[in-house]
Write a structure and sequence with these properties.
The structure is a single chain. This protein is α/β, with parallel strands linked by helices. The protein has a single domain (about 5-25, about 40-285), classed as Alpha-Beta Barrel (TIM Barrel). About 35% of the residues lie in helices and about 20% in strands. The protein is built from nine helices and twelve strands. Strands 1, 2, 3, 4, 7, 9, 10, 11 and 12 form a nine-stranded mixed β-sheet that branches. The protein has a three-stranded antiparallel β-sheet with strand order 6-5-8, with no helix packed on it. Strand 2 and strand 3 form a beta hairpin. The radius of gyration is 19 Å and the shape is globular. The termini are far apart.
Length: about 290
């Protein structure tokens, strides 16, 4: 990591600028003295860390879920989409855990002031899952009062709920824990298995591996029924559903697909376009 790529330099500059421009904890999106619309709990910020102000941009757009990709480098958890993106100043702590801790402290126990529902932090593991998760678990313990926690068969709500995605090898050490500050991101193959919602609260999968429709023309009846069956099965077990790899270019096709996801009661809509999804959900009065 001795050489600094142009992208890495820009992202480092962005992180510095974000630190300078970021408002005091809670003030940008939860000021007590002014009305703010309620959070958009269905909104998921895919690759959140690529925005100019990671976390804060998503919160300013009232998102209920943000996604951070992590790489284990030594004992550090670095943020980036690929290994070429990594910068030692951009860590899980600096971009997410430390700011969230400050925000929750300022807001008396919640990310969005006055809202008890937790923010979802989807942590996508890009390096080997077992070793990365074990190091992640050590990092999370430093913020133990911040997170929803599973302990000896019970779930205790917190201001932030961590859900672990990415490399599947993280599952083994997670299942062995009697106390953990994170939960597992399942796949459609986990639907109807013995894995409870207290371990797999979220089912995520690739839209284009399961559906052919991309928003143009009519949604095939068989695919609409398949989607609704998936949602019904997940919800009957207390699990939420998210699809990635959905169209994300602004236009009628994206709006049509998002509309079908809303109609089917999908829990999270995946986007890199924060303002676009915020406007769509507000127009449809869907929090």
């Amino acid at each position: 990591m001795a050489l600094i790529t142009r992208r890495r330099a820009l992202t480092a500059f962005g992180a510095t600028l974000a630190a300078v421009l970021a408002p005091p904890a809670g003030s940008a999106f939860a000021e007590s003295g002014k009305h703010r619309p309620r959070p958009l709990w269905r909104a998921h910020a895919h690759n959140d860390y690529e925005h100019p102000r990671p976390l804060f941009d998503a919160l300013d757009h009232r998102f209920g879920s943000v996604e951070a990709d992590i790489f284990l480098v030594g004992d550090q958890l670095l943020i980036g989409h690929t290994a070429d993106d990594l910068d030692p100043t951009r860590t899980l702590e600096s971009l997410y855990l430390d700011p969230l801790a400050r925000i929750v402290r300022a807001n008396h126990g919640s990310v969005y002031r006055g809202e008890r529902r937790p923010l979802q932090l989807l942590i996508d593991i890009k390096t080997e899952g077992s070793s990365t998760y074990l190091e992640l678990d050590r990092h999370l313990r430093r913020y133990r009062h911040l997170f929803t926690t599973y302990a000896h068969g019970r779930v205790y709500p917190g201001a932030v709920t961590n859900v672990i995605s990415g490399d599947r090898a993280a599952r083994t050490p997670m299942e062995a824990q009697t106390v953990r500050r994170a939960f597992y991101d399942g796949r459609l193959t986990d639907l109807g298995t013995a894995a409870p919602a207290s371990f797999v609260p979220l089912i995520s999968d690739d839209w284009q591996l399961n559906f052919t429709w991309l928003g143009e023309g009519a949604f095939p009846d068989a695919e609409r029924q398949k989607l609704r069956d998936i949602i019904a099965r997940a919800h009957s077990r207390g699990q939420k559903v998210r699809f990635w790899n959905t169209p994300d270019l602004a236009g009628p096709a994206r709006d049509a697909l998002w509309g079908e996801l809303l109609a089917a009661d999908v829990d999270y809509l995946n986007t890199d376009d924060l303002a676009g999804l915020e406007a769509f959900l507000d127009a449809h009065k869907a929090a």
